[in-house]
UniProtKB/TrEMBL annotation:
Protein localization: Secreted, Cell wall
Name of this protein: DUF642 domain-containing protein
InterPro entries for the chain: DGR2-like_dom (IPR006946), Galactose-bd-like_sf (IPR008979), Pectin_Meth_Modulator (IPR052437)
Organism per entry: Protea cynaroides
Residue ranges constituting the DUF642 domain according to the UniProt record: 29-185, 197-363
Keyword Secreted attached: yes
Keywords: Cell wall, Glycoprotein, Secreted, Signal
Amino acid sequence: MLVLLSLLLLCSSAFLSPALAVKATFFDGFLPNGNFEERPKATDLNKTTIKGKYSLPKWEISGLVEYISGGPQPGGMFFAVAHGVHAVRLGNEASISQSIPVKPGFLYSLTFGASRTCAQDEVLRVSVPPLSGDLPLQTLYSSNGGDTYAWGFRATSKVAKVIFHNPGIQEDPACGPLLDAVAIKELYPPMPTKFNMVKNGDFEEGPHLFNDSINGILLPPKQQDLTSPLPGWIIESLKAVKYIDAKHFNVHSGRAAVELVAGRESAIAQILRTVPGKIYNVTFTVGDARNGCHGSMMVEAFAGKETLKVPYKSHGKGGFKVASFKFTAVAPRTRLTFYSSFYHTRIDDFGSLCGPILDQIMVLPIRY
Ligand SMILES: *[C@@H]1O[C@H](CO)[C@@H](O)[C@H](O)[C@H]1NC(C)=O
Ligand SMILES: *[C@@H]1O[C@H](CO)[C@@H](O)[C@H](O)[C@H]1NC(C)=O
Ligand SMILES: *[C@@H]1O[C@H](CO)[C@@H](O)[C@H](O)[C@H]1NC(C)=O
């Protein structure tokens, strides 16, 4: 009887949406001591330098790692720490790492606050072996130093080793990127539906958003769709795109959208399964995030052999328009790509890159 009952339970649970059943347990939050507010013991510090491999609580360190409090520093520098009060600075060839339990085969994204401190060409290498990515920090996307990035990986075993490393060799050994908070989110892999062939076309599934992330989250370039922190989407080219949420920005639909902040230097793309010869209709919205980003904007969209240029006049006060075009598939795979034709900065802050926002991307076959 008991066996039968549990069988029945198993059967009935199969009718529940597996997505919902799994989603309820998806983790989303800081890594242990992910905001570095748990301090090393006073005896484990020499001024700001952390002594000993295991002296930074919950982390393992190697090389010259400094424990920093935000604000003016001895020697005249100023470090902005956007999330909390404390941060770590990774000197030449230094790294910090932590091993966390994960579910093999699942997609994750790390969200972290990072900024350069002295040299233009500082790079932060983030890796979860076997995957690794280099983030060039020379482009400051917001002028207050509080840039936040997301990077995605797929777990290959039950434990993931998250490593942040400074591969640089600067003249000043202490020079190097500042890391001020690290969070992780398990991502739900979106699928195409009969209502939309585009996966995650509304950008509702994306990286962890710090509750104080007023600047949005930068999605660095060269991320493939299989491991992207924006599930389903490839982030192409040389510079980042920005993931913005409805809490801090004007988002026309749902909880999130993408801001194309780096002109033609950054694009997002998705590969669609198509039937050669069939005609498809692409629709999407173009607007502004009500963040003072103003001017004559243009979003270019590409699919098959078709291109659509969508002009949008932004007053920086929030608004949007709907655009659509059709294309004939020439292959069983069609790449759908979007970028901004121009560069923009905010009316109140010429140091902050911004651009048009893209949302609600939909592709459906046209039936005659
Ligand atoms: C602290 O660092 C300085 C400079 O690197 C070094 O000369 C000194 O010996 C260190 N002190 C201790 C207690 O480790
Ligand atoms: C943001 O989250 C932190 C850590 O969970 C919390 O201490 C803080 O109060 C939150 N801030 C806001 C504005 O919700
Ligand atoms: C494409 O879809 C949009 C939105 O549903 C619609 O307004 C437009 O007429 C469609 N275009 C074609 C060619 O079917």
